[in-house]
Specification:
Ald_DH/histidinol_DH, six-stranded mixed β-sheet, single chain, about 500 residues, globular, binds nicotinamide-adenine-dinucleotide, alpha/beta, seven-stranded mixed β-sheet
Length: about 500
């Protein structure tokens, strides 16, 4: 059994804590390792290393920083399969999906390689006689990233390549459920030429998170995880004077209009609901079938759900792996049962799913629940499992109003052949990321990612231009170089020209 250590100041360390958490193989249900859970002092050591490294790294030229980013990109690319294998082993998703996760993270590194261009300032010549104004952006200092289990490589990469490219130093507190990939990422940064202490990893739970939120040397916190914790991180971090972006949970709807190609919509709904066992913050968990589309959608998507090949992530034949823990498996099943008791119709039932040879694994089969209403638990809860609820609406406006009544606002999609309906949807829906015949509309790295309402606390989205803005602050300089004869030009009033 392996023990996963922290990475501080360029090397692994056990820290001081005697506490550990088990790390499971979700495909077998067996414990395969343990991860150390940092104490406040362990976190203070990591923040100290980052704080000391900031002085030099923040003064390192843009050209040099970009070179490190390019080298890191090459190393992540060369080790993509190794990273994906670590994801599969601890998260459980299928290998091809894990490789896709690494690729999406790598796109953020590629975005950050353009840092010299991204932090260019503005210059205004002759704003007043003999006076010029210009702006430039500086890094913040030590920034922290606190991340969820569902994308152990990609979500941290939404943060650290941009933060580090901007000249900050970074302390990552990854999910304790799948911690190993972060240590390999740390090694790759070091091999890319990043000075020790610029990127650090502390493993842990609430104790480590609270230590990061309370440490005055941490200037900013990026968080991705569930809504109650996101709200808490935002409140405590901002109360301590930090910049905070905290991305929360989701309940993503896809409207299917009667004019859509139902076969196309069902294929995409199935992939968006059951891919990665539904453990994606952009998964579609509710289909809103409009008018006569309902029965055909339920039939088509149920056929596809029954055909999904469920099995261990490391088996190339598997299309969907297990969920992350026994507790997640039991919670998902109990919410489906509650939905059934509250009047929903379970059309495809993934409860009690057994994969031969992997009887102890945390498997839940694809599940389709029809005739769901907004009062039922199966709709109200973020299930975070392979469960698609189908609700019915009479008109597109009713469907939009239904989505807007939901407290979350992360992603949403519409399937239609009507440009007019799609435009009404994109303008009327109160959601941050919108797909038109695209069910999982994750923005590319050069745009910013983030939801509205209870899906994001704070005002900046991650990566893209808003990521650069989050990890830097601006200075505006007003400058005059008087010629000697002009030296006593001071006035006691604002000049009108
Ligand atoms: P989680 O909120 O349980 O954990 C996220 C992080 O917070 C982990 O690092 C964890 O150690 C820490 N944490 C947990 N409890 C804490 C506490 N009481 N105090 C302080 N820190 C605590 O989330 P998860 O189960 O790992 O991930 C799934 C959730 O993440 C889902 O709700 C999903 O929608 C959300 N998510 C959102 C996005 C997005 O972009 N909005 C992306 C991915 C995942």
């Amino acid at each position: 059994m392996t023990t996963i250590e922290h990475w501080v100041g360029g090397h692994t360390t056990a820290g001081r804590s005697a506490r550990t958490a088990p790390v499971f193989d979700p495909a077998t249900g067996e414990q395969q390792g343990e991860v150390r859970l940092a104490t406040r002092d362990d976190v203070a050591d990591a923040v100290g290393a980052a704080d000391r490294a900031f002085e030099d790294w923040s003064q390192t030229s843009l050209a040099r920083r970009a070179k490190v980013l390019f080298a890191f990109r090459e190393l992540v690319n060369a080790h993509a399969e190794e990273l994906a294998a670590l994801i599969v082993a601890e998260h459980g998703k299928v290998f091809s999906d894990a490789l896709g996760e690494v690729a999406r993270g790598q796109e953020v590194i590629e975005f950050a390689c353009g840092i010299p261009h991204l932090v260019k300032g503005e210059y205004s010549d002759q704003v007043s006689t003999g006076i010029d104004s210009f702006s430039f952006r500086e890094p913040l200092g030590v920034v922290a990233g606190i991340t969820p289990f569902n994308f152990p490589v990609m979500v941290p990469m939404w943060m650290h390549p941009v933060a580090i490219a901007c000249g900050n130093t970074f302390v990552l507190k990854p999910s304790e459920r799948d911690p190993s990939a972060s240590n390999l990422v740390a090694e790759l940064w070091q091999r890319a030429g990043l000075p020790d202490g610029v990127f650090n990893v502390v493993h842990g739970d609430k104790e480590a998170v609270d230590a990061l939120l309370d440490d005055p040397r941490v200037s900013a916190v990026s968080f991705v995880g569930s809504t109650p914790i996101a709200r808490y991180i935002h409140e405590r971090g901002t109360a301590n004077g930090k910049r905070v972006q905290a991305l929360g949970g989701a309940k993503n709807h896809a409207i299917v209009l009667p004019d859509a190609d139902i076969g196309f919509a069902a294929e995409h709904l199935s992939a968006a609901a059951f891919g990665s066992a539904g453990e994606r913050c952009m998964a579609i968990s509710a289909a809103v079938a409009v008018g006569g589309a309902g029965d055909a959608v339920v039939e088509a998507v149920s056929d596809l759900a029954r055909a999904v090949r469920v099995g261990p992530g490391r088996d190339a034949a598997s299309e969907m792996g297990p969920v992350v823990t026994r507790a997640a498996q039991e919670r998902i099943e109990s919410i489906v049962t509650a939905g059934e008791q509250q009047g929903a119709q379970v059309r495809v039932d993934g409860r009690g799913y057994v994969v031969p040879g992997h009887e102890g694994g945390f498997f839940v089969g694809p599940t389709v629940v029809d005739r769901v209403t907004s009062e039922m638990d199966v709709y109200r809860e973020e299930i975070f499992g392979p469960v698609l609820s189908v609700v019915r609406a009479d008109t597109v406006d009713e469907a939009i109003a239904f989505i807007n009544a939901n407290p979350y606002g992360n992603g949403t999609a519409i399937f239609t052949n009507s440009g007019e309906a799609a435009r009404r949807f994109q303008r009327g829906v109160k959601v941050g990321m919108i797909g038109i015949n695209v069910p999982v509309p994750v923005p590319m790295a050069f745009y910013s990612f983030g939801g509205w309402k209870d899906s994001l606390f704070g005002d900046k989205h991650v990566h893209g231009p808003e990521g650069v803005s989050f990890y830097t602050r601006a200075k505006v300089v007003t400058s005059r170089w008087p010629v000697p004869a002009d030296a006593s030009d001071a006035t006691f009033h604002f000049r009108s020209t």
